[in-house]
């Protein structure tokens, strides 16, 4: 029967329907140590998780530093959404490493400091969604007309490894994913769209002297640019849903493997 709570339809769609409750906009979540632990650890502290967080932070730190040296372009490194995303990956990885380090040595420190964890949760979600959308957009729409080499280290880092590492992190962290949190990466996308328009109106050019940042976001053709922005925002919604599905997969596997070797006890 359709009302049977054990039915496949109910088990599939009821959890999704619950995500559209008003309180799901909130950045409140308990327990707070979900933001500071791995989904796969069983003990309160994990040296492996601490080492992983710092390894990820150093990985992104080296990657961003290398791309700044290689692609600085008289400061134009900072105009590209790719580099915004890359820089944000470094920011969130260092943010997470610092939080986990504090928690590792003082587990009660965050009991009365929910705001910093809310910022971390919102930031992590924005970076995750934006990184995956950037990777998809670049290889599908920009790379075919780009002069860059697909095997170039910067290309692989900023348009591939970044999103791979963020999705990996998404499958390791313990905090939840909320569908209605899609509003946060949407706001970030609109901020970049406004920046690109201001940059164009101010006479800004790309590294090759063209009067745009990306050819597909050329404000001399406002109709096309607006359409591209709308398309990118739609992609943000789609990727948010796909990443939510990965979160549900993560928790489903974790619930079945609580006592297996997949958990971290070190």
Automatic annotation (TrEMBL):
TM ranges: 47-72, 84-106, 118-142, 154-175, 182-202, 222-246
Entry keyword set: Membrane, Transmembrane, Transmembrane helix
InterPro entries per record: Rost (IPR049352)
Coiled-coil blocks: none
Origin superkingdom: Eukaryota
PANTHER family: IP08657P-RELATED, OS02G0130600 PROTEIN-RELATED
Protein name: Protein rolling stone isoform X2
Taxonomic source organism: Musca domestica (House fly)
